[in-house]
């Protein structure tokens, strides 16, 4: 059986379940990757189909991202009934107000920011993204050598702060003072909403960790190449959109 046929069969079986969680990563899954993080946009139609899915009965829908919640709201423009999980699970649209960094976290954040600012001085083409609980060193668009040395400098900073959560990603290194993880967030949401199974699609390191944390009965899909723990794979964001449309048609026909 081809991979595409196996995925279609799995989707059909998933769509018949009484109550499901459909969760989707943002960057590299709904939105093609671009050099400037604030220029990322979901493919036309993909947020509409998520909203349509969320309006169906017994169908919980969430965008689960490393973006902080406020940025995720801004970039997607979606709100209830679509749920948002930001900062890799630290901030959610359904448990507000989000936790605020305490004095110790603020002190660790300030020390980290000072060291990463030094990294930027030495690697002026690299960029820093500030989120409430983390800092992200970005190297997309840099010459390969410059990107590699900037990321190594970031990893050296991480090595001096073992109390921080260091997460490599696609041409980024994220250092967080508070961490939950997409897998934990998905499992908690699935339990709270009492779903029978979770569909999750994503493309990056944090999504792989989620695939690992989900149950074998969940339906996991990797976007793009690379080793994966997901049970299925699609090529790109356009294929994700097709999957979501197929899921909507199947759930709507129940
Ligand atoms: O969990 P995600 O929704 O996939 O978010 C993960 C990180 O995505 C962003 O960085 C990635 O996308 C950028 C825009 O396309 C790209 O420039 C960068 O190279 C990618 O790694 C975001 O900026 C991070 O904060 C997210 O953690």
TrEMBL record:
GO terms for biological process: trehalose biosynthetic process. Pathway: Glycan biosynthesis; trehalose biosynthesis. Keywords: Hydrolase, Magnesium, Metal-binding. It comes from the Bacteria. It catalyses: alpha,alpha-trehalose 6-phosphate + H2O = alpha,alpha-trehalose + phosphate. PANTHER family: TREHALOSE 6-PHOSPHATE PHOSPHATASE. This is Trehalose 6-phosphate phosphatase. The lineage of its organism: Bacteria, Bacillati, Actinomycetota, Actinomycetes, Micrococcales.
